[in-house]
Every structure is written in structure tokens, then in C-alpha cells.
């Protein structure tokens, strides 16, 4: 049996915008429900979960693009910290010494899609940069 829906269509449409900036607890509080109820509603009502995921993904994409811009900034000093952070989080780079054993990296479909998108964005940036030289 599904969770009783406590949100109007108008409130559901607000979830994507709220998810950009607020945590689950804050969104729940905004609507006057507890966190567990909101989690159950997301599970039982795909439209609510879709709006939440849409908002969170949009925020991640926005920050990833900003980070990539910083990491590949064209100045003498560069943005070393942003570059290292990008490599560690998106390219699974590590400063640890490499061990002799080979480890298979298993990526989820979402990670694979993000990797492909990153590659496309990099190639586009590289192409645009080559046109400006």
C-alpha cells in the first residue's frame, strides 16, 4: 500500500527547485512533514522522486561545470586545487602509490553516462580552444 499523498501538484512541481539548495530534512520541513514521510512519498510516488532527482542532478551538473571551468582555466598559475579535486572525484585519480595488483573498476550506468558526458565536454572545450589559438 502506498503512502498517502500530502502534497498538491503545485508543491510537487516545487521539489526540483527546492532540491537544488535544500537537504531532505529541509524539504520535509518546508512542506511540514517528517523526513521519513518524504522518503516514503518519494518511493511510492515516482513523480515526486523524479522532481527530487532532477533538482539534485541539476545542481551537481552546475557545480561540475564550474569546477571543470576552474580546473582548465587558461592562466599561468592555474587552479591546481580544482584540477586535483576534479581528477580525484571524476577520474578516480589518487596520489597513493600504485600497487602491482590490477583492480577492475565497476561503474554504474550513471557513472558511465557521466564519464561519457565529461569526455564530450572536454573534446568540445578542446575543439573550441583550438579554434581560438
Structure notes:
It is a single chain. The chain is elongated. By secondary structure, it is mainly α. Helix content is 69%, strand content 0%. The chain has helices spanning 9-21, 24-31, 35-44, 46-71, 80-90, 109-132. The chain has a domain at 9-57. It starts with 8 loop residues before the first helix and ends with a helix.
What distinguishing features does this structure have?
6 helices; 133 residues; mainly alpha
Indicate the topology.
Blueprint: H1 9-21, H2 24-31, H3 35-44, H4 46-71, H5 80-90, H6 109-132
Helix pairs in contact: 1-4, 2-3, 3-4, 4-5
Gross morphology: elongated
Main sheet: strands, sense, barrel: none
Number of helices: 6
Radius of gyration from the CA trace?
20 Å
Average pLDDT works out at: 80
Structural class: mainly alpha
Amino- and carboxy-terminal Cα gap: 62 Å
Helix content: 55-70%
Short description:
By secondary structure, the protein is an all-alpha fold. The protein has helices at 9-21, 24-31, 35-44, 46-71, 80-90, 109-132.
Amino acid at each position: 500500500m502506498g503512502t498517502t499523498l500530502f502534497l498538491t501538484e503545485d508543491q510537487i512541481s516545487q521539489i526540483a527547485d527546492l532540491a537544488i539548495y535544500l537537504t531532505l530534512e529541509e524539504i520535509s520541513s518546508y512542506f511540514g512533514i517528517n523526513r521519513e514521510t518524504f522518503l516514503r512519498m518519494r518511493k511510492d510516488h515516482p513523480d515526486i522522486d523524479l522532481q527530487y532527482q532532477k533538482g539534485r542532478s541539476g545542481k551537481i551538473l552546475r557545480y561540475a561545470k564550474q569546477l571543470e571551468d576552474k580546473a582548465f582555466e587558461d592562466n599561468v598559475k592555474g587552479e591546481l586545487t580544482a584540477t586535483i579535486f576534479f581528477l580525484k572525484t571524476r577520474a578516480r585519480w589518487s596520489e597513493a602509490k600504485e600497487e602491482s595488483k590490477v583492480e577492475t573498476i565497476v561503474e554504474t550506468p550513471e557513472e558511465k553516462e557521466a564519464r561519457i558526458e565529461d569526455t564530450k565536454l572536454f573534446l568540445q572545450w578542446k575543439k573550441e580552444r583550438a579554434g581560438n589559438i
